[in-house]
TrEMBL record:
Its EC number is 2.7.7.65. PANTHER family: DIGUANYLATE CYCLASE DGCM-RELATED, REGULATORY COMPONENTS OF SENSORY TRANSDUCTION SYSTEM. It comes from Novimethylophilus kurashikiensis. GO terms for cellular component: plasma membrane. It comes from the Bacteria. This is diguanylate cyclase. It is an enzyme of class 2 (transferase). It catalyses: 2 GTP = 3',3'-c-di-GMP + 2 diphosphate. SMART domains: GGDEF. NCBIfam families: GGDEF. Residues 253-388 form the GGDEF domain. The chain crosses the membrane at residues 7-27, 47-72, 93-112, 118-136, 148-168, 188-211. One of its GO terms (molecular function) is diguanylate cyclase activity. Keywords: Membrane, Transmembrane, Transmembrane helix.
Length: 404
């Protein structure tokens, strides 16, 4: 199969142009995700490739100097797009300095200095790619997805291709690395064009998919997180409870449930207002989160009620941790507007153990809720164990434990 340079350049322009058009169509003006800048960058690349394709039919100023300045500007826009995607400020020098260097480099070199232009040009574009790779590498959040690798390694591959092209230009025949208008390209030229087409396409697809993956993560977070306290919402907590219970039944290890209620919370809302009530909820959630273990799960069940899962924790351990939470909350003053308030909590506890047999999370939460009701009816600010577990705890002679 015979491929010529003009056909490859036309294919490259067609792919770039259609991709820029597609991105421009789906760009949302109210969304600062970098897609509009990336679309503009692809448009500039298309224009640059057009000028390069017309080499020999237009002046060298346009096909060499202007084309490379436009290409450098396109890479600067890509860098700005990556910064915008990460919601970071892009230092001006990172896109202004390369464009200035492009003007000096490609405008200052004689047009017949092909070797120097190819070698220095390859190093120049490697520098721009390294700036983009640096920003991508520091994006730890996107590392969890697959799209990040697509764009990151595409840029690395493009750098390797440019370095190989510069090396060939410096140490072998110049025609192997240049961009002539002949219809019989050699393998080096052919490889350069195919690599540019492939990696440019993969990089752009990677950027679009990276935006999608982040949107998916944010949607999952919104669906699973209580927006006020930033902990699991009821739905997410129940899903996690089923997973933990299934794991406990497989391993035979105990699993404890805590149902936590803020005492006299309605009075806080009535006396200080709902904004103060929200601050109280956030403050209590922070105290609970700070005193639970890494393997524990905290969620807001609704209103002023919280739930906690304690994997691998028996009745004695659950009571000890519940008491710790109760004491820590009582010792912490929650700041409400211009004053601070000491709040207390009541805790109901239920425990799944192997002897209990098969169960489900709702049954165990109902048992914890019944224990919580007993704690509130006995004066609040206390921890109460569910009835099925309490007799065994009495036999173990555990102190300071109330039974529902």
């Amino acid at each position: 199969m015979l491929l010529d340079n003009r056909t490859l350049l036309f294919s490259l322009m067609l792919i770039s142009g259609l991709m820029a058009l597609s991105m421009a169509v789906v760009v949302r003006k109210d969304e600062r995700d970098g897609l509009s800048k990336w679309s503009a960058a692809i448009s500039l690349e298309t224009l640059a490739w057009l000028l390069i394709a017309l080499r020999g039919s237009i002046t060298d100023v346009l096909s060499i100097t202007v084309a490379n300045i436009i290409m450098a500007s396109a890479q600067g826009l890509k860098l700005a797009a990556i910064y915008e995607y990460r919601r970071l400020h892009c230092p001006r020098w990172q896109y202004l300095v390369p464009v200035t260097l492009a003007v000096v480099l490609f405008g200052g070199l004689p047009y017949n200095a092909v070797t120097e232009r190819l070698v220095l040009g390859s190093l120049f574009y490697c520098f721009q790619l390294s700036l983009m790779l640096r920003v991508l590498h520091s994006d730890r959040e996107s590392h969890t997805g697959h799209a990040w690798g697509l764009i990151f390694y595409s840029f690395w591959a493009m750098m390797a291709m440019l370095l190989a092209r510069g090396t060939v230009a410096a140490f072998t025949h110049i025609e192997f690395a240049s961009t002539p208008t002949s219809i019989a390209p050699n393998p080096i030229q052919l490889g350069v064009f195919i690599c540019i087409m492939s990696f440019a396409l993969m990089g752009s697809l990677g950027f679009v998919l990276m935006i999608k993956e982040r949107s998916d993560r944010e949607i999952r977070t919104l669906a699973m997180t209580d927006m006020l306290t930033k902990i699991f919402n009821r739905r997410a907590f129940m899903i996690q409870a089923e997973k933990e219970l299934a794991a406990a039944e497989r391993s035979g290890l105990p699993l404890s449930f805590l149902m936590i209620d803020i005492d006299h919370f309605k009075q806080v809302n009535d006396q200080y207002g709902h904004a103060a009530g929200d601050a109280a909820l956030v403050g209590i959630a922070d105290v609970l989160s700070a005193n639970l273990r890494k393997q524990d799960t905290l969620g807001r069940y609704g209103g002023e009620e919280f739930c906690a899962l304690l994997p691998g924790t028996d009745a004695a351990g659950a009571m000890a941790l519940a008491e710790k939470l109760r004491v820590e909350v009582a010792m912490t003053r929650v700041h409400l507007q211009e004053t601070s308030l000491a709040l207390t909590i009541s805790v109901g506890i239920s425990v799944w153990e192997r002897e209990r047999g098969s169960s489900d999370s709702r049954t165990l939460l109902e048992a914890a809720d019944q224990a919580l009701y007993q704690a509130k009816s006995r004066g609040r600010n206390r921890c109460v164990m569910e009835l099925k577990v309490a007799p065994a705890l009495r036999k173990a002679d555990l102190a300071n434990i109330s039974a529902a």
